User: Fold Response regulator of the competence regulon ComE from Loigolactobacillus rennini.
Amino acid sequence: MLTTFILEDNAKQRFYYQQIVRTQIMIDQLDMQLAFVTATPQKIKHYLQHQPHTHGLFLLDIEIGNQLTAGLDLAEWIRNHFVDARIIFLTTHTEMAFLTFERKIAPLDYLLKDNGAPKVEQQLRQDLKIAQQRYQQTILHTKQKFGYRIGQRYYEIPFTQFYFLETAPGNTGKLIIHADHQQAEFIGRLSEQAEKYPHLFLAHRSILLNPQTITSFDAAKRIAYFPDQQKCVVAFRKVGALNRQLR
Assistant:
């Protein structure tokens, strides 16, 4: 689901944007929820810090109170932490558009309030549909590939080649990925990956496996086998659930 946030310090405009979003979600049955409507950037930031896997759509005013670039600063932080975030600016400041390029925010749109409410509403409704389409494409891509980061480099493995993840021995903050003719270690927690990729199966407190690439499962020995002679153990209490999933 695409989680939507509105940052606007004008109460009347805040309510207006909220109504547009809610109406469009209902009319087009968009896979969205309106999570936050606020005049405080820190509230959005605090939410995101506790929800690191959020797929977000952000409608941000740039000037908040006496802070000329509060919305812009929040957008930059969001982009640095959520690379697939969809950001729409709603502002009267035409002169700040170049700053979105300078800060590499890459917004979905930059809507000028001075164009009038009907024009802004028309553009915003169109942007909501575009955001939904791009979100669906992202989800499809996520289901097709497993992504992980080592240092500053990002890697992807098709799930047809992905076998299982295990927690590194003696270090719950590191994971080892087992895939087709490859193995790599990266920083992360198994619980986060299980939440991000719900189609994977938590076979053990330290193992998250891909049922699609299992070649055989010995329920008596509680061992799942994969190509390349790779294998992993399955917890006793998980045997029945895995058997049912493999039928």
In short: The longest strand covers residues 171-179.
